[in-house]
Design goal:
single chain, mainly beta, five-stranded antiparallel sheet, 1 helix, 8% helix, binds zinc ion
């Protein structure tokens, strides 16, 4: 199961209108990350089926475009409203 260390002390913010990595206000939520291990790591979207939620599961939070690029887009997934076929 692939994980990527992202945070020292958990998400910068858990406000859904802000980037979880830097706290910048987002005009729209497009890219999301799944934050696990108590807020320290990002779970690779392809490994979602391998992950068994535990006490360290923080859930999914929006990430800004700049931070998503810095992280690597492969670690992010589209917010449900932007997925094809979802209205
Ligand atoms: Zn950011």
């Amino acid at each position: 199961m692939r994980t990527l260390p992202l945070f020292q002390t958990g998400p910068a913010t858990t406000n859904f209108q802000e980037c979880c990595a830097c706290g910048k206000t987002l005009m729209r939520v497009v890219d999301m990350v799944h934050i696990i291990n108590g807020g320290n790591d990002v779970l690779h979207p392809d490994d979602e089926p391998l992950y068994e939620p535990d006490a360290g599961d923080c859930g999914c939070f929006p990430i800004g475009a700049d931070c998503a690029r810095r992280l690597g887009m492969q670690w992010t997934f589209l917010a449900p409203r932007y997925r094809q076929g979802v209205i």
